[in-house]
Amino acid sequence: MHYDLIVIGMGLSGLMAAKTAAESGQKVLIIGKGMGSLSLFSNTIDVLGSLHNTIKMKDGLSHWIKDHPEHPYSKVGLEKIEKALSSFLSLFPSPYSFQSIDNGNSLLPTGAGTFRPTYLIPPTMTAGVNLQPRSSLLVGFKGFKDFYANYVGDQLKCRAIILTLPEVFGQEVVAPALARWMEKESFRENIGKEIKKQLQGETRVGFPALLGIHNPAQVKEDLEKITGTQVFEIPILPPSIPGMRIFNRFKEWLIQKGVTFLLGYSVSNAILKDKKCEGIEVLHPPVINSYSADRYLLATGRFIGGGLKADTEKVSESIFNLPVYQPESREDWFGKNFFTDPPHPIHRAGILTDSSFRPIGERGDLILENVWVAGSILAHHHSIDEKSREGIEIATGYTAAKRALGV
Question: What is the pTM of this model?
């Protein structure tokens, strides 16, 4: 079957690329073996968390682009970054709409008992911004091992309680299960009443980030009515329930727009001729299906997503065998200390592109004419240190699709 655009990868960059193309009336296929890092790490939208929270994001990005000409943000440009973020936000109307506080970064509590800066925040977390000592009661659940409420409370100087869940006796207490139970009115009514009994003047109640998958705003509202407090979520270890919400919203929208959605499939081979991709093969044992398109967009992520793979000698790209920008030798991958500044060189490895996000070699020669690249697989960024991963994925997914389609 032939498409206008085939997107390879279902992380945030791939989803944004598919959305952008679908809005332009294109026939789109998106393929992915999983949800990318959305289901692992994404709770909020980091754009440039290394900025101090007193600096407006627009001003910070403007200076960042000037100081980092090779960075993906510089290829996108400030105007396109803003349009990309606006496009993302359009998918999330009230009551589950992302927002920034004073157009800059805000500090949110984490499941490690620390604070982290982030830019766009879902409504289930806003009451936790700039959390003050002794203002909140933190809630954990007996048997749930991914959130240690007492430890987090000690670090944040807030009181904590552990609730027993008799309704789930004999079942494994994991984040997806708790999120589903939270969507049951009787379940949240019981825990809400128990929390209200144990309040000692706290005006806010913090939960691990699992207030439902499908209707978290309603779960939050109900718990607030029962407890008489403001309720907020605290990001925890994977899997990320807020990340699943983002993925599900994209999936629902894309399918409604007629995008062909192949989740759980891997691209096993790319058919290349001269400087063009003529098709891809998708393995679904024992069958191999072939698909073709006018254009292809690679958004497979780095090592976690399988977009890059490493052996004892080098890093390589998994599908098109594109050249990877990387240190010259294995010995140069890492610094001498674990915590080092600048970050370990291997974390800047990735695919080089021209200004339109088409892959190029180190001398600037174009590798493939009808392939574009987006997301964390791009070279010359360190999204972990910069706290910019979601921002890079949104901005480059949007912009690479625009440039691929010439719109």
Answer: 0.95
